[in-house]
Design goal:
This protein is an all-alpha fold and 424 residues long. It has one domain. It is built from 20 helices and 2 strands. Strands 1-2 form a two-stranded antiparallel ribbon.
Amino acid sequence: MLSELLWVIPFVLLLGSIAIFPLVYKHHWEKNYHWIAIGLGLIVILHTIFQLKDVHTLLHTAHEYFSFMALVGSLFVVAGGIHITVKGEATPLVNCSFLLTGAILANFLGTTGASMILIRPWIRMNKYRLTAFHIVFFIFIVSNIGGALTPIGDPPLFLGYLKGVPFLWVLQQIWVIWLLAIGILLAVFFFLDTRNFKRAPAEIRAKETGKEEEWRFTGTHNIFFLLMIIAAVFINNPPFLREALMILAAVLSYKTTPKPVHESNDFNFAPIKEVAILFFGIFATMIPALAWLEHNAAKIGIQSAGQFYWGSGCLSAVLDNAPTYLNFLSAALGLFVPPEILAQNGDHAVSVLLSTHPNYVRAISVGSVFFGAMTYIGNGPNFLVKSIAEQFKAKTPTFFGYVAGYSLPVLLPVFVLVWFLFFK
């Protein structure tokens, strides 16, 4: 067990680097983050190949990374070709309506698609009084918790769908929890935004309340490519066809979008490049961490629905939430489904788990999706939103500032309430 834990160190070092270096050595980090992420990832990759001789796990992880980047990258490119002009929209009530709309859309476009389409107009409509909490609550609501109702919304739920969880099961089981969490977060945001609005100069308040709402869309042909990506999500065979269609949609979108639309969005590939490099390191270095969890879940005494909620949630805050979801789903199957049914290796095992212990799957689903909002690395869109906001010169908290200033005081009480009401 000790030797397994030692190989978790590269993962811890990468997380520590992401958390500390932008705060302490920002310029050095911006110039050298790719060497750190790729270097730590290669250490684990070489260990997996030459010491563990486990090429199968490495190839499986590589395929997951490729699928992840194909989805996130294609949505990023296609969304960058849709420009929304918004004027007169920055009152607190309209801001809340915008966030609620984004949360609903996340279930149809995915959290990445909704985030990439809406973050730029969100920044523009609040440009006269934009603060860090505007960016943070967008990440909370649109980039994470909003997408908890359908398998399209967030990758963990889609993996559950592929494993045999019915498409509408998540909506039926989680809508009350979703409504509670979104409602509380919107109420907190409304309070903060109202205070911010009142502190704005009188001419700014008059400008925001005096204009009629005006929305103008350009690059709307990209909606077809967006639907193409969503349709590709459901293709499993032949191998790599799904990813090929996503990449094709991105290429066609980029080639057919007029240059002025990209210029209006300040579109460039820097944010997705940063995500690709950092998540290369994360996917590679998390191999030993996930293997340790899989081998020792029973030994560390994870038994109750509450433990599954907190376990999958806390790991999803710092690990990629898709493999975390699968590992905890596997642990639940091992605990509650007879071995002879598990040996059949089909959807029947998940059906049995859903019929006998549905609250465990509900706990894993909620924990994996909700807790992705706890850190910048908890979910792919978080980093993209942060990078785009920084391109717009918007205020964004540091890694620790995000956690200490927003996640712990705002999200954690909500998550404790969810645990107390549904999983205690």
